[in-house]
Amino acid sequence: MAHMVERAKTTREFVGEIIRVEPVMGDAVLTTFTAPKRAVDETHPGQFIQILSRDSTSYDPLLRRPYSVYRVDRVARTMTVLARAYGRGSGWLMQQPAGVALDVMGPLGSPFVVRPKSFHLLMVAGGVGAAPILMLAEQAIRDGKQVTYLMGANDSAGLLPASELPEEVEYVVATMDGSAGYTGFVTDLVPDYLQWADQVFSCGPEPMFRSLRAVIHKHRLGDRPDVQMAVERTMACGIGACLGCMVETRRGMKTACVDGPVFEMDDMLWG
Q1: What are phi and psi of 157, to 5 degrees?
Q2: Beta strand extents in the chain (DSSP E only)
Q3: Which residue ranges form the domains of the chain, and what is each CATH number?
Q4: How far is Cα 93 from Cα 83, in angstroms, rounded to an integer?
Q5: Of 241, 240, 84, 271, which is closest to residue 261 (Cα–Cα)?
């Protein structure tokens, strides 16, 4: 409990004003809003924020909703999140125009960790999991790394536009209907890059994680490259108090909102 209290005291809340809303990936939107300098400076790839996704006159939904940070602009002092309508909260956020004030908490959670000696970075994304991977790719390019970004979707409309990525990134896509890139699962592409990659980073739905885990265990040599996964969980409180986002690991049960959302793949236990 002391650990939770300490986390609660360090939680940062702020009000951000929406300045831009852009459609992306078919049925998703990018929402950009203002943020304090401290929040922008302290946000790293893989972390998330919590937004109170409701009108000021309503109490539904009662709790904030989590969104992975897609991009920060440290000069303009803005944050961008990628939202798709999975429920009432995300549906509300997607409908908000420029000028609306958002009640935000964050940044929260643990980021991806790129080892200093890692140079070749393989990134694997599915759905709105594109958000933290995009931010990681941009940072990696600024740090002089080589990046291959693999993304999967049901069809071409669900893919992140190549124009969103730095031109230095090798962007390879897979679609289930064959409308763009490889026909099939994005994880089918992974074996071609495992000997090249120093580290692998991923974010997406759990079925993609299970497929990725099976592919990597089959094709990698020993325990390299290591794999970090940003899990998708319903994180109601964001500070480890409600225990609604538990992840089973070799070191016991961990909260995705505090100990994650980024975990080492080999630390996670799978049912």
Answers
A1: -65, -25
A2: 13-24, 28-34, 48-51, 65-73, 78-84, 101-108, 120-126, 146-153, 170-175, 182-183, 199-203, 226-230, 246-249, 252-255, 262-264
A3: 2-108 (2.40.30.10), 120-267 (3.40.50.80)
A4: 8
A5: 240
Q: Residue 157 in contact with residue 26, Cβ under 8 Å?
A: yes
Nearest to 172 by CA among 137, 210, 218: 137
Tell me the two tokens of residue 259: 């100990």
- 95: which 2 tokens? 């409908």
pLDDT by residue for the chain (271 residues), tens only, comes to 334 333 444 458 999 999 999 999 999 999 999 999 999 999 999 999 999 878 767 666 667 788 999 999 999 999 999 998 777 778 889 999 999 999 999 999 999 999 999 999 999 999 999 999 999 999 999 999 999 999 999 999 999 999 999 999 999 999 999 999 999 999 999 999 999 999 999 999 989 999 999 999 999 888 889 999 999 877 777 788 888 888 899 999 999 889 999 999 999 987 5
Residue 166 exposed, middle or buried by CB count within 10 Å (0-12, 13-18, 19+): middle
Which amino acid does the sequence have at 218? K
